[in-house]
Amino acid sequence: xxxxxxxxxxxxxxxxxxxxxxxxxxxxxxxxxxxxxxxxxxxxxxxxxxxxxxxxxxxxxxxxxxxxxxxxxxxxxxxxxxxxxxxxxxxxxxxxxxxxxxxxxxxxxxxxxxxxxxxxxxxxxxxxxxxxxxxxxxxxxxxxxxxxxxxxxxxxxxxxxxxxxxxxxxxxxxxxxxxxxxxxxxxxxxxxxxxxxxxxxxxxxxxxxxxxxxxxxxxxxxxxxxxxxxxxxxxxxxxxxxxxxxxxxxxxxxxxxxxxxxxxxxxxxxxxxxxxxxxxxxxxxxxxxx
Amino acid sequence: xxxxxxxxxxxxxxxxxxxxxxxxxxxxxxxxxxxxxxxxxxxxxxxxxxxxxxxxxxxxxxxxxxxxxxxxxxxxxxxxxxxxxxxxxxxxxxxxxxxxxxxxxxxxxxxxxxxxxxxxxxxxxxxxxxxxxxxxxxxxxxxxxxxxxxxxxxxxxxxxxxxxxxxxxxxxxxxxxxxxxxxxxxxxxxxxxxxxxxxxxxxxxxxxxxxxxxxxxxxxxxxxxxxxxxxxxxxxxxxxxxxxxxxxxxxxxxxxxxxxxxxxxxxxxxxxxxxxxxxxxxxxxxxxxxxxxxxxxxxxxxxxxxxxxxxxxxxxxxxxxxxxxxxxxxx
Lengths: 290, 331
Fold this sequence. Notes:
The complex is a heterodimer of chains A (290) and B (331).
Chain A: H1 10-15, H2 20-46, H3 78-113, H4 116-131, H5 134-145, H6 149-176, H7 179-186, H8 191-227, H9 239-246, H10 255-282, H11 284-289
Helix pairs in contact in A: 2-3, 2-10, 3-4, 3-6, 3-8, 3-10, 4-6, 5-6, 5-8, 6-8, 8-9, 8-10, 9-10
Chain B: H1 2-29, H2 45-54, H3 61-73, H4 87-122, H5 127-139, H6 144-158, H7 175-209, H8 212-219, H9 224-261, H10 267-276, H11 280-308, H12 310-314, H13 320-330
Helix pairs in contact in B: 1-11, 4-5, 4-7, 4-9, 5-7, 6-7, 7-9, 8-9, 9-10, 9-11, 10-11
């Protein structure tokens, strides 16, 4: 391994490691994976195999022509629940990303523009808030306001806003330290103009990529909450609670314990791939390097 | 280095105080009267007033905070509303499960992630390098509890070689039994943690392989192993150490899910119970201890980074350039 020429030029090898084609493939695979879940969720608004309350299928029935994924321990159709779960997962992701994104952007921008003492204070508080993982904050909020989809979204969104705020603050400060900002300031542009004309156009690609990653984390956090029994109550169960319900009967009816996990992985991987793909599209410096 | 340590320690103390304030405010912001936890449904007004006085809720918020803070300073975390037992010893009792779980999982994850991440980077053009990298990408999307359920199904229910959950009543009196009940939880956490650590190890090693100093060292006649050992290792380990610190802290805090899968009586399950019962002293205590652990781990990670990287040692806060830029931003 030591002296041979073949192992010598890592530089070339590294530069080749991602070609343009593979990158766009990343984006497309991601879009397809997310698309599958999205279509499933949209279908659930107009059509479901069974009513979620329908318990006519018999308990823990194996997969059949009538119940493609079998039934759960109360006799409810599993496929129906999984489809509803897709909708819930997307609602949680989208809801908390919108909430966390808006609050986080506003806080981050405010902090970047604020007086030094306020900025330091805000970022210290943000650091402390980030030290608590999303799940703990969410558990607290949900415990206090009752287990429902809304409180899960609220909690996850709030926890996310701290992360988004810190990122926005760092990015905005980096832009604000540049010469053309000083020039704009000297020529009389006030802070709203600076935000709209200079800061947002520069930071949005990175923020959007981060929000896409946060989407996946939000879905996982809600699944964990539901698994702990703090999510939206059945029959509108999320994948996490389907899994928790099916855990006890995994040997008799394995689909209930396996399928929600697979779907979660598909969605989160899909979102992460989209984020990776977007990062390369949104950042010309990375594109040029390949 | 000493002056750095003093400053960093002062920062640690200040953050801890700040964290206790944030925690206190957060808990009071939540709806629900903790005094209700003490009472049954048909309580009279006098009983409610007595309960509020008992838990100190009749005092103004600031007085309540200083009361709690004063107790903290004396290492007293208060008394549970529900069980009437002191919170501190209860937490210690729970840490006996959570700390070994976290540490063993951490060590196992590092043992898996470092070689895997290295191979994934060094052989990044080969199919197995790409495969390892893809698996680690997959790993960060997999929910911890799902891995737990799958492992229980395989090893406990089907093969029947390990217990599906629970922890011995007498804790570590029989280390073999305790280790057996921790085996599956440790593997579960370690698998998930190693996936994300692998990604960071891979990218750190890729950066080093890409570096000019490694190429110079090779050009001067050093073998790959020697160049890597003398120049690559330290450089690659700096970013990985800070990630390891974050991972360790996250795992400690995230233990609640794994403890729930395996019915372990750890800190996480204590939090889950106390939240369900609105037992504020318990919640406050668990969260404070968790925050303390997270901050101390961060402190240690910073310290180790400075031991490894002399460039960080030279500046006081580790990013002299960033603070220079910060001053520029003010101007």
